[in-house]
Design goal:
223 residues; mainly beta; Immunoglobulin-like; 2 domains; 5-stranded antiparallel β-sheet; 2 helices; 8% helix; 52% strand; signal
Length: 223
């Protein structure tokens, strides 16, 4: 009996290794906003969508919508009441690339949550029309380029003069577009381009993106 007691006492003096419990990693709460915004009307609604991490764990989360030179223009706030938020966007908001910047997020135990950062580029929207005609082995393609005007009254689409327009063609509906030639619109936004085509093709006119305006492709025309 004394031998057992002595053995137990000896064991009690041996240090026992304690396994550390790892700290729980911070939950994540993210928001998705449009990466490209085309201004085509005095007002439009933009949708911000919260991630599953927000819906499952977040008590609250916030992001600011920041213009690079003009400062804050909107605020996104998650309070658990909805999976999305609508941002009111007006055509007088400045164009440019906005940063959706995290301002803090907390889980149901008030621990910090990680957040994401988004970029949202806002430019003026454009339109492109197309019409075609054939004479023998040549196809004439005409179009009018317009873009949204925020300064005219009433606001709306106006001629886009002096812009470059590319003529594209493809031989089948599932084929890729290939460049044919380019032209520049006149003061009324009109352009006319002529191309050789001995067989029927699909045709398209397209403007390119500029620093202020999103380019736009027309519908396809078969001729």
């Amino acid at each position: 009996m004394l031998t057992r007691v002595a053995a137990a006492a000896a064991l009690s003096l041996v240090p026992v290794a304690v396994t550390a419990v790892p700290a729980q990693a911070a939950y994540s709460c993210s928001v998705t906003t449009p990466s490209k915004v085309s201004v085509t009307s005095p007002y439009r609604a933009l949708t911000a969508t919260y991630s599953a991490g927000c819906l499952r764990y977040a008590e609250s989360a916030a992001w600011s919508v920041i213009h690079p030179t003009q400062g804050s223009f909107d605020f996104i706030y998650y309070d658990g009441s909805s999976s999305t938020q609508t941002m009111d966007w007006y055509d007088w908001n400045p164009i440019g690339t906005y940063t959706v910047r995290p301002e803090g997020a907390y889980d149901y135990n008030y621990n910090d949550m990680t957040q994401n950062t988004r970029k949202m580029t806002v430019k003026i929207g454009a339109r492109q029309s197309i019409s075609t005609s054939r004479s023998g082995r040549y196809v004439t393609v005409k179009g009018t380029s317009t873009r949204y005007s925020r300064t005219s009254y009433p606001s709306g689409f106006r001629a886009w003069p002096g812009t470059k327009v590319a003529l594209r063609q493809k031989t089948c509906s599932s084929c890729s577009w290939t460049w044919v030639k380019s032209g520049t619109t006149d003061r009324y936004g009109r352009v006319t381009l002529k191309a050789y085509a001995s067989t029927t093709r699909y045709w398209q006119l397209a403007t390119v993106d500029t620093s202020t305006t999103w380019g736009r492709a027309s519908t396809s025309a078969r001729r």
